[in-house]
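Below is a filled-in request sheet from our internal design queue. Each sheet records the structural input a requester submitted and the sequence that came back. We keep these sheets so that new team members can see what a complete request looks like end to end.

REQUESTER: design group, bay 2
PRIORITY: normal
MODE: inverse folding
CHAIN LENGTH: 121
BACKBONE (tokenized):
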């Protein structure tokens, strides 16, 4: 019997990883690095959650869903930084400050999601 809540959370993470944008009109290695990190943790934890769901009852899917939500939010901000019609250094700096703050939260969320699945990422 599959633990559907954990399986759904894992598939949500995999969907976020799949849909994280690549590149953009203004190539930015910094943004690409953040996106690749998000893709990696969402993919790894998504697969781990699906494996967990196949063999374990229970578990808390909320940390996984929070991580998926935060990864999506960061990706959206990266899109805003990379596609604005009129580049504005001040605005981009504010957005990057927010992205860095959110990525700090992602680190904690990865820990909580890993703990929920009893895996190391």
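RETURNED SEQUENCE:
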């Amino acid at each position: 019997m599959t633990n559907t809540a954990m399986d759904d959370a894992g598939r949500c993470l995999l969907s976020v990883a799949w849909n994280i944008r690549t590149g953009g009109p203004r190539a930015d290695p910094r943004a690409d690095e953040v996106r690749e990190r998000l893709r990696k943790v969402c993919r790894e934890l998504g697969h781990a959650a699906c494996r967990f769901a196949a063999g374990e009852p229970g578990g808390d899917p909320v940390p996984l869903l929070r991580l998926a939500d935060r990864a999506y939010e960061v990706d959206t901000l990266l899109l805003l930084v990379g596609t604005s019609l009129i580049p504005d250094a001040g605005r981009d700096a504010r957005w990057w400050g927010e992205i860095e703050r959110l990525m700090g939260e992602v680190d904690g969320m990865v820990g909580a999601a890993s703990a929920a699945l009893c895996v190391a990422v």
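SHEET NOTES:
- The CA atoms of residues 20 and 35 lie 7 Å apart.
- The two ends are 26 Å apart (CA to CA).
FILED BY: M.R.
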